[in-house]
Write a structure and sequence with these properties.
Distance between the termini: 27 Å
Structural class: alpha/beta
Strand content: 5-15%
CATH superfamily: Metal-dependent hydrolases
CATH class: Alpha Beta
Radius of gyration: 21 Å
CATH architecture: Alpha-Beta Barrel
Helix content: 25-40%
Oligomer: single chain
């Protein structure tokens, strides 16, 4: 076996995917589905008290005003909330309330907000509203990134034109021709469906996305099934399949998780081992 082939074999066996599909068992990313504003505020209140915020802290005061709670008895030294990019919430929970978004984004610790279809406030009739653009700016200012799920081309274009920072797109089968330049210039991370039960089809999709965008380092594998994902034969077929398609090692590393790093200042983000 040639030296490069030995290195590729080693790399393939050491391969670990960052599982961003929250529906998968054991996925690195999780969503917290708060049914109401009060539930999200309750979580926020718990975290504020746990980290030792003063009873007179303005954030705690706002939470108590929302929930009609009494001030906490103990006071301590408040600690900065660290954003967790693997923790997500759905945009609909905010009910179009920008002030509520600002309050929770600064304090709860979620690092990702999912936009999936109309929410009657920020996304209406498949378009990003003026209020939605303000929400996007708030998220960016708070170090929270957007995951846009299966958007129409018009909505994707709206986000591209409004965004100042990279975001994540998942659920689309093909890259829209008219948006390729913006997707690259805005450094958007593009999800490509990958099922280890059908490796060749997944690799073909990845290669098509690379050719469409002219770059592979902004692509991320959106794993559809955990079955066989970490089988040695599957990982070897995945890695060598991309090598045969002309991919470089750094491109493969980006595709299994490295491309997510620009979305957050935190170390990304857990693997599916």
């Amino acid at each position: 076996m040639l030296v490069p082939d030995r290195l590729y074999l080693y790399n393939s066996l050491m391969l670990r995917f960052t599982a961003i599909n929250t529906a998968l068992p054991g996925a690195a990313w999780k969503n917290t589905d708060f049914p109401t504003k009060a539930a999200l505020l309750g979580r926020m209140y718990e975290q504020e008290i746990a980290r030792g915020s003063q009873a007179t802290d303005s954030t705690v005061a706002q939470i108590m005003a929302f929930l009609n709670m009494a001030a906490p008895a103990a006071a301590g030294q408040a600690q900065q909330v660290r954003k967790n990019p693997a923790q997500g919430v759905k945009a609909a929970v905010f009910g179009g309330d920008i002030k509520f978004l600002d309050l929770t984004a600064a304090s709860v610790g979620f690092g990702r907000v999912e936009f999936a279809g109309d929410d009657a406030s920020w996304v209406v009739a498949g378009r990003l509203t003026d209020s939605g653009k303000t929400a996007l700016k708030s998220l960016e200012a708070n170090g929270v990134f957007v995951q846009l799920i299966n958007p129409g081309e018009a909505l994707l274009g709206d986000f591209l034109n409004a965004a100042a920072k990279p975001f994540l797109v998942t659920g689309l089968a093909a890259v829209p021709d008219g948006l390729k330049a913006l997707l690259v210039s805005k450094k958007i991370v593009w999800g490509v469906d990958y099922d280890p039960e059908d490796i060749e089809a997944g690799l073909d999709r990845a290669d098509q996305a690379k050719k469409a965008l002219g770059v592979a380092t902004n692509l991320i594998a959106y794993v559809k099934s955990a079955d066989k994902l970490n089988d040695l034969a599957s990982k070897r077929a995945f890695y060598f399949g991309l090598i045969k398609r002309g991919w470089k090692t750094e491109e493969i590393n980006a595709f299994v998780g490295g491309s997510l790093r620009p979305l957050s200042g935190n170390a990304m983000m857990g693997r599916m081992n």
